[in-house]
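Notes, Module 5: Reading structure tokens.

Key idea: the token line is not a picture. It is a compressed description, and you learn to read it the same way you learned to read a sequence, by spotting repeated patterns. We will look at two proteins. The first is printed below with its tokens.
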Amino acid sequence: MFAEPILRYDQPLYRPPSEGRNLIIQATIGCSFNHCTFCSMYKAKTFRPRPLADVFADIDAAARYWPDAPRVFLADGDALALPADDLAAILDRLGASFPRLKRVSTYATPINLASKSVADLRRLQAKGLRLAYVGIESGSAAILNRIRKGASPATIVAGLERAHAAGIAISATVVLGLGGRQLWQEHIDGTVDVINRAPPAYLSTLQLRLEDEVVDEFVARFERDGVAFTPQDDEGVLGELERLLSVIDPKSPVVFRSNHASNCLPLAGTLPEDRDNLLALIALARHGAPVIRPELLRGL
């Protein structure tokens, strides 16, 4: 591969676990929204697009060291915030620089997707943008408001439907524990509704873990109308996971994963085909089988 100095990354650099072996090109710095109260990823950064000349220079440098790269991830938090013409130019440069390129992917917010036309998304898909990672977090309007997501369930569904119409696959994440012990059922039932209305190709869970610097803001906003936030323990999270998988009934198959390091119980399967097997594993965990990930092995 190549050493870090060859590419001019603005640290910290985040990417989905499944992109760990792929080339990362930083098209933007930070997150264009950056107000979600549970997230600390980009708090130290001010969002800005990188000059196209700098992005192209990184692409050219990477191509000299890894000309056969088959996949590229566009960082930072939501490169899809860029204008469609800029993204098209980046995708064109990638396609010309990597003859074996099969897929370009990026993080995207629901607002990114909902603000671009299906025609623009189709143009980007035709140039190689095949996958977008979208944080749904929750399908409950109340929870989305409490975490200051900047999107409603309707906005999320609209964004996912636009991506689907354009042929861009969605890898969506939801955050178990986001409603605490008081609002967990509202959180999960709203999430199920969104997934059933606009099924992503891939669905994964994170388990809520708040960094110290965001705890106070998260709790204060959650509790501003008098509803206390009591964190879920593993048993509560397993209950959320059980309800999520029991009720989801997607119109098309959804590949499900809970293998991120934050999760107490790693699971993998396809819904609805593997529903019974996944629920059986949850039942084993709830009855004391030694399948829970030790706390010391968990993290963000």
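Here is the second protein, with the sequence above and the tokens below, as before.
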Amino acid sequence: MNQKTDHLQQLSEIKTMMERSSRFLSLSGLSGVFAGFFALAGAAAFYVYVNKQMATGYRAIAHSLPVDLDLDFYTFCFADAGITLFLALAVGSYFTTRKARADGQKIWDPAVLRFMINLFIPLATGGIFCLILLFKFRWFGIIPPCTLIFYGLALLNGSKYTLDEVRWLGISEIILGLIGCLYLGYGVTLWAIGFGILHIIYGLIMYIRYEAVPKEKKYW
């Protein structure tokens, strides 16, 4: 019986070693939690700006094609998005680096590089596509749901090199983005749900499952 248990333990250790060599398993759930809070703060700031500084509400802007917006609006939007992204990346890098060191893993290895490349390609494509929609066609309302769709595709594309929860987060983002394309007036609300609430939920799930348990029980 003990010999059988030893064999099973050895197989489990071999499987863990293979996963660590091919997948980025040090992604911290706390990164998602904080990214979600930053996204909610960014969405709230946008709503306050639109309601106080502009004569028309967001729904009117979302359904306008082409939309006529001034330089101040674009400046605020890019500043709001830039600050939100910077804070999310900074805090995410901190928690992920801390988790990698706690797990005895390298911060940069081939698995991390594969994950980043597969994540970046759909993200970059989506970013360029949204800029074309904004400056070529001046269609602002479609951009929030499009960011959700391309972000979901990026997560789905990179999920095979990291934790399984990332795949389901990606699918959820895509679904929200498609709903947002049908209801443009609720695009920012769905954006807040996707980048904010879903990040918090999935981040907590990942933290509880992989970080808030004894080390020998991780990655089940």
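Summary for the second protein:
- Residues 10-21, 216-220 have pLDDT under 50 and may be disordered.
- The helical segments are 2-22, 29-53, 58-62, 71-102, 110-135, 143-158, 165-182, 187-210.
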